[in-house]
Design brief:
The protein is of the alpha/beta class and about 300 residues long. The chain has ten helices and 14 strands. Strand 4 and strand 5 form a beta hairpin. The protein starts with a strand and ends with a helix.
Length: about 300
């Protein structure tokens, strides 16, 4: 288990991370979210032992993280950090050696992953000769070549087309199934909703929302009603508790303040021909924007 306990980080007088705590068990994928400058990168660096907290501690299986456990950690940075004049094999051998792997094990693992990601013909190509998408695949391979116990993924799908995203998704899920502890950060909230059962949202280094994703969505009272049919927008907008009515390409979306408004909306639209009426929880993106916006206002 990874335990982050009350970690705080100052850079001089600047407070970058403020008393942050969370736990991630084996086989869990945990979402760490925040706007740019929220403290995510500093948190990642403290988790990996690259920075010492000003207060608090980080432990992996009960042991504080230091160089004796870094071989068990993998990290995919948001910025591409490949050495363009190396071949794919040389690059992966370099990273594998840093993680204490034998040459034989590095090559065995590399061949397996290159075949898995359908790029085995690139083994001896220079990194600079690869497309951006394939460079991202290689960067991902360098992060997981050591089969890490703890894997940190910062914007892992950046620059990937839908087919290559699927390769990454399958591998991430398989690693979690095999017991890896995974921390996942992305500005694409649909990816967080797909992977993560628990999350923390940071703003100015402080957690403004944390916990089980299902509970967070349940506790966020606002809902969306998706309606396919003929509705009078102006009449629905006047219903007490309706926040907004929008006309999308495929359906109307009625945003309501809580479940108690559903019956009122249904009563109004049932006067017309309706093909679809579906009530859904707010998306994580809506919750994120709302919660971060509230926190900005509180600090203003």
């Amino acid at each position: 288990m990874l335990k982050v306990e009350n970690i705080t980080k100052y850079y001089g007088d600047f407070l970058a991370v403020d008393n942050l705590s969370f736990e991630v068990k084996e086989g869990e994928i945990f979402g760490l979210l925040g706007v740019n400058g929220s403290g995510k990168t500093t948190t990642f660096r403290m988790i990996m032992g690259l920075l010492d907290p000003s207060a608090g501690k980080v432990t992996l299986d009960g042991k504080e993280i230091d160089y004796s456990v870094t071989d068990k950690i993998g990290f995919l940075t948001e910025e591409r950090s490949l050495l363009l004049k190396m071949t794919v094999f040389e690059q992966c051998k370099f990273y594998g050696t840093l993680k204490g792997m034998s040459n034989e094990k590095i090559e065995e693992r590399l061949d397996h992953l290159l075949e898995k990601f359908n790029i085995k013909e690139y083994k001896n190509k220079l990194i600079k000769e690869l497309s951006k998408g394939n460079q991202q695949k290689i960067q991902f391979i360098t992060a997981i070549i050591n089969e890490p116990k703890l894997l940190i993924l910062d914007e892992p799908f950046s620059g990937l087309d839908p087919f290559n995203v699927k390769y990454f998704e399958d591998e991430i899920k398989e690693m979690a199934k095999n017991g890896s502890i995974i921390i996942f950060s992305s500005h694409r909230m649909e990816h967080i909703e797909q992977f993560c059962k628990k999350l923390t949202i940071l703003l100015n280094g402080r957690s403004v929302l944390s916990g089980d994703l299902k509970k967070i969505k349940r506790d966020y009272r606002k809902k969306n009603i998706f309606i396919d049919g003929d509705i009078d927008v102006s009449k629905n907008e006047k219903i007490d508790g309706v926040i907004e009515v929008t006309n999308g390409e495929e359906h109307y979306v009625v945003k309501i303040k809580d479940d108690s408004i559903v019956e009122k909306v249904f009563k109004e639209i049932s006067k017309n021909k309706i093909n679809k009426f579906v009530v859904e929880a707010a998306t994580l993106n809506e919750i994120f924007v709302s919660k971060v916006g509230e926190s900005y206002e509180e600090q203003a």
